[in-house]
Task: structure prediction
Amino acid sequence: GENVEQHPSTLSVQEGDSAVIKCTYSDSASNYFPWYKQELGKRPQLIIDIRSNVGEKKDQRIAVTLNKTAKHFSLHITETQPEDSAVYFCAAYSGAGSYQLTFGKGTKLSVIP
Amino acid sequence: DAEITQSPRHKITETGRQVTLACHQTWNHNNMFWYRQDLGHGLRLIHYSYGVQDTNKGEVSDGYSVSRSNTEDLPLTLESAASSQTSVYFCASSNTGLASEQYFGPGTRLTVT
Result:
């Protein structure tokens, strides 16, 4: 089955700096990669996703890049703000009739004012 | 507005008792999932269903069961609660189709004493 590794597990940045979270996946058949943000005590919520036929996707201050050859994808947050502080999860979706997501273990991002 | 709800939100039970956690969605989604979230492990899939009468085991299914008698509900039953099942449980649902977003419920915090 799919295996998703996520790094780093914790990340502290100064407000206004950029943050990068990296994930690798094992199943070359995986074709969809969402990122979820979970604030303390809340449910995970989708913030951005990318399909395997696209190399990069951007939405305001957040962007995701995908390297299918190397089987890794990354989340980039620019001009970080205190409200970006949360746990971020990457996930991979195997497709081929499966609707399951395999999640990374999460990255706790702290933005220091 | 369509939503996904879970009940109870908090539950304390004793070792050996049977516990059922409810999940109800009003999106008419075919796909429903149960995850547990533990520190250091991220979100791990317990069981999932792709439609009425369909249920499948996930990564950590031992000690849990589900049933799907209608589209809206996927209750999760702990047959004989164990302290190792103390966790936060999230239900999620998604539409059928490639790269459909999974929407998460608010979570149930279960403590087994």
